Amino acid sequence: MNHNQDHLAARAAPVLFVLLWSTGFIGTKYVINSADPLTYLAIRMALVVGLMAIIAGVARPKWPDRAGTAHSAVAGILVHGFYLGGTAIAIAHSIPAGLSALIPGLQPILTSTIANRWLGEKVTPVQWAGLVLGLGGVALILHNRPMSGEAGLGWIASVVSLISITLGTLYQRRYCNHIDWRAGNLVQYVAVTIFFTVGAFLFEDRVVHWTREFVLALAWLAVALSIGSIGLLYWLIRHAAATSVASLFYLVPAVTAVMAYLLFGEKLDALAIAGMAMCAAAVFVVNRRFAA
pTM above 0.85? Predict the structure, then answer.
C-alpha cells in the first residue's frame, strides 16, 4: 500500500506542481494592481513566515547548523527573492501574465548546462534533443512580441528570474537537500522577507490598497504558492535529477497562457499553440529516462 501511495504521489506531484506554479503568475497580476511589486512581496513573505513558524512549532523539526542556515538563506534569496521579484517587476512593467512565464520557461536549458558540470548529472543526447525541442516551443510562443521600451525592462526582469530560479534550484539540491524542509523553508522565508522589506523601503512608496481582490490573491499566493508549490518543488528536487525537475518549467508558460486567456482575454495564435505542444513533448522526452 505504501509503495502504491508513493507511486501515485510521484505521478501526481509534477502535475500539481505545474498547475500551482502557473497560478503564481495569474495571482501576481491581480495583486500588482493594488501594491508595488516589492511591497506586495514583503507582505506576502511576512505572512508566510508566520505560517511556517506555526508549522515548525508544531512539527519541531531538527534545525540546521550555522552552515546549513547560511545555505538556506542563500537558496531563499535565489529561489524566492530574485525570482519572485523579477516576475512581479516584469508584470508591473506591462508584461502580460501569460508571457511573464516564458523567459523563466527557458530554465531547463540553463539547468542542464550547469547540472552537467556542477552536479555531475549525465544529460543524454535524447534529453538534449528534448531540451532543444522545448526551447523551440518557447521561441514560437514568444514570436512577434514587443521587446523594447517598458516591455524591455520587463523582459530584463524576466531574465533575472530565469537565472535566479535556475541557480536557486541547483543550489538547493547541492547544499540544502538534507535540511528538514520545515526548518529550511522558515529560514529561507525570514531571509527573503528582510530582502523584500529593504528593497521596498529603498525603491518604492509602500502604498497598499487593501481591496478584496488583493487580499484573496495574496492569501492564495502565500498559502498555495509559497507553502504548497515550493514544498512540492523541494520534494521533487529531492526525488529526481535537476534536469528532470527543471523540464517541468517548460509546461508552465503554456498552462499560464491558457489561464491568462480564460481570465484576462490574453489571446493565443496558432504558432503559440504549436509552441505549447512542443513544450509538452519536450517534457515527455526529458523525463522519459526517469519514468522507467
Answer: no
